[in-house]
Structure formats: C-alpha cells, structure tokens
Amino acid sequence: MISWFSAPFTRGRGAARLAAGALVSGLAAAAAVATAGTAVADGTAQNRSGATATVGGLKTYGAAVIHGDSGDQEVSAGLFEMSVEGGGTLQTYCVDLYNPTQKDAQYHETPWSGTSLGVNKDAGRIHWILQNSYPQVDNLAALAKKADIGGGLTEQDAAAGTQVAIWRYSDGADVDAVDPQAEQLADYLQKAARTVAEPQASLILDGSAVSGRPGELLGPVTVRTDASAVTVAPPLGAATSGVRIVGEDGKDVTSATDGSRLYFDVPADAAAGSAQLTVQASTTVPVGRAFTSESRSQTQILAGSSESTVSATATATWAAAGAIPALSAAKNCARNGVDITATNQGDEAFTFDLMGIQHTIPAGTSRTVTIPLQEDQAYDFTINDPQGTATRFTGVLDCTTQANETGLTTQTLAEPSPATVGGTTATDTNLAQTGSSHATPLIAGTAIGLVVIGGAVLLLVGRKENGVRH
After folding, report:
1. Per-residue model confidence as pLDDT tens digits over 248-305
2. Nearest 5°: CA angle at 97, between 93 and 101?
3. Burial class (CB within 10 angstroms; exposed 0-12, middle 13-18, buried 19+) of 198
4. What whole-number distance in Å separates Cα of residue 344 and Cα of residue 161?
C-alpha cells in the first residue's frame, strides 16, 4: 500500500473554495471547480512552462510531531516522488504543511511569486537546505559529520530531518522529528541555512503571448533554459495555414538554445486568427523550483531530478486591422491576485469589461490588471478578442500557509472534493493510511463554497507605452 503524507488539516482551506464570477461583454469570470487544470478555450490555451508531473506518494520518510494549541500530532515527513509527463522522475519536499496531498494530483513547475514562497522572507533558506542536505548530499556519513551526529544517518532520518527543517521555514511550524538523529539534522540545517536566490526555470518562453499584423514577423519569443537544446514544433495545421516558426533571419527553426529568439511568420493574406508554438527539451530541473497543483494538493519544492521532459508554449494572434491584443496571466501572491497582461499591437484601442469595470488598452501599449482574489479561491476568466478568439485562464490562488488550530485533524484526500453552489455540503472522502505508525486515519468532510464577487477593485500595476516587442 502506498504511504501518503498526512498532516493536520487546519487552515480551513478544505471548508471553502471561493470562485470569482461575473459575466461581462469582454471578460467572463465563471465558477470553477477546485480541480481546474490546464485551461483551453476557442483556439487558445493557457500557456504553461517547465515540467509537469504527477505525484506518486512518499517514498523515503520518517516521523515528525507537530506541536499546536490543540495538542501534538504525529505525521509522516520526507521525500515525495513524482512522475514527469513525457519521462523523468522528481523528488520533492512539502512547503505547505497544513494542506493535504491529493492522490495522483498533477503538478506544474511554478515561479516562487505564484506560491507562498514568493511572500516568504525565508524562501532562500529553504533553497539552501535543499542544496546542502539529502538527496543532493547523498553521502550520509559526511552529512552526519557536518551535523555532528555521532550515530550516523539512515536515508529515512535524512529525509525526515530535512523536511522538518523546511517546515520550520516554509510554515513557521513548531515541529520536531521523532528520531533523535533526524531531529539533530533538522536543528543543524535550520541554524546553518543561508539565503540562496530562486533558481531559474527549467524552460520558459519570454513573450509567451505576441500579436501583430499578417505579413510581419510576430515576436520575439525568447527561449530561456538550462538545457543544451530544445526542439521547436510548428503550429498545429501549419501546412494548411502557412504559419511558420522562424529566426530573426526569416529561416525556419526546428531547434533552439538558451537565448534564441523565435518568431511567427504569418502569410500576408492570412485571415485573422491565432497559432501556438511548442518547445520541448530533456534536462534536469533545477533544485529549488516550486511545484503547484490546481487540485488543492499541497505545494512542493524540488529536491532532486532525473533527466526529465520539459516544455513551454507561446501564442500569437494577428489581424489586418483593428485592436490586436496578446493576453497572458500569472499568479501574484504579493498582491493576492492574478495579473492579466494585455498588449495591444493593433491600430485601435482594445476595450474589455472586467467585473463591472471597463479597461481600455490603447494601440501600441501594454497594461497589467491585477484581479484580487481570496486565499484558496478558484478562478476562471475568459477574454474574447475582436477576432473572436477566446483566451481562458483558470486556477486556484494558494499563497499562504498559516495554521488555524481550530479542529485539528489528520487527513489525506484521495480525490478532489466538488464545488457546490448555494451553500456547502459535506462529502466523505476515502483516506489513505499515513506513513506514521501512530497517526490516526480520519474521514473528513470537505466542502467547497462558491462565492460570486462583484464590484472588486482592480489595480493597474503596470503600463508600458509603445508596447511593440523587440
């Protein structure tokens, strides 16, 4: 039987998921279930980048005790293993103690700014711990010597001690490892930790949404990766549409390297439309990269990677005249919301309504609108451009790890709970046995509330005049 991580479910996040909703002429914000994954719309998909993986459970772990106002709770602590889509394996630790793990949840590589790490002053210390402990340091005798542990370390001790040290920084938890050697390692790592900068993404495309007129090179889309090379796939239906992916010299591109600048070459007689390019590579994902799921599964941080498949997409939109917007979105935990960026490369203003507020992006400019959300709130936003292409962005805002000691329970959800409209209902969930021999499996009801938010104040956080990309 697979042993799943189990922790006190005390944040109250299982009690309600909130979804923003408002139907307007330009942008619809509709109720979204907490299981929302990669979003697709009429011809345009939400862009993701880096590695995508499915959690497989705890593989190397020991026991820990969380001390709280409601008493002590024993939990499993250690390394998860994830299977990468396309090939590869990841090892991760949890940085979201008070949220349970969803069985078989799909995770996406995510910048720290879209997680609780983005607003955690100690995130860099967690990165140091990852670089200086197990499994990056697999010489356990040497690690024990550094931590002045006379009895040596097992892999289980090393994993448990490392996880406990991380929780002290990621969640501010009062937590101890059960095994004395693991506890000594946790104390050493906590005291020795220094700030290390966030690692670069395994693969990302700068300028993942571009726009312009047919007959022009639309871009650039710049490759950022630590892989030696990436393959470049042409847009779907390229043979019929005539859209090509080219370099600055106008020649077809099928492979690229870090810093390569790619362009969409759209035929001059092409009707208004859009296309997407995909780049893919095989590389080791940098230690310290965050991984998040849209199915209420706890945030993870990378501790080790095999050679793994990573990919990224970019979208181009074109029209002969009028407003020609390029749209992208990113979670912004510093502002407790989602940033939607609209760049208009057309010759007319692009106007859309968002939750009752009208926004106009003049020709040749770019603006970012921050949509404020509540913690754990599901969102589903669709923007229609003048050419009839819909761009949809979905997800769940997960930016904090604060504990609420009310109703201390231990659970691991086997599958996501459904959203409910017009109130909350309890839903029984089958729970997996924890890795700790003393942890008590409980069946807990989880209710997700849907709340429609209207009249929200939207923040214009960025404006770039003459927003043509170069």
Report:
1. 999 999 999 999 999 999 999 999 999 999 999 999 999 999 999 988 899 999 999 9
2. 75
3. middle
4. 51
Helix (H, G, I), strand (E, B) or coil at 188: helix
Q: Phi then psi for 146, rounded to 5 degrees?
A: -60, -40
**Cβ atoms < 10 Å from Cβ of 28:** 18
Is the omega angle on the peptide bond into residue 220 within 30 degrees of 0, that is, cis? Answer: yes
* Averaged confidence pLDDT in the chain: 79
Residue 413, by phi and psi: left (phi above 0), alpha (psi -120 to 50) or beta? beta
Q: Would strands 261-265 and 217-225 be described as parallel, antiparallel, or unpaired?
A: antiparallel
Q: Decide if pLDDT at 181 tops 60.
A: yes
Residue 320 and residue 328 in contact, taking contact as beta carbons nearer than 8 Å: no
User: Helix 155-170 vs helix 180-192: angle between axes, to the nearest 10 degrees?
Assistant: 40
Q: What is the CA radius of gyration of the chain?
A: 23
pLDDT tens digits along 106-151: 999 999 999 999 999 999 999 999 999 999 999 999 999 999 999 8
- Round to whole Å and give the CA distance between 46 and 391: 7
pTM: 0.78
C-beta of residue 76 within 8 angstroms of C-beta of residue 441:
no
pLDDT-derived band at 425 (thresholds 50, 70, 90) equals very low
User: Which residues in 244-289 belong to E strands, given as ranges?
Assistant: 244-246, 255-256, 261-265, 273-284
- Residue (of 296, 433, 228) closest to 18 by Cα position: 296
**Six-digit token string for 175:** 């937590």
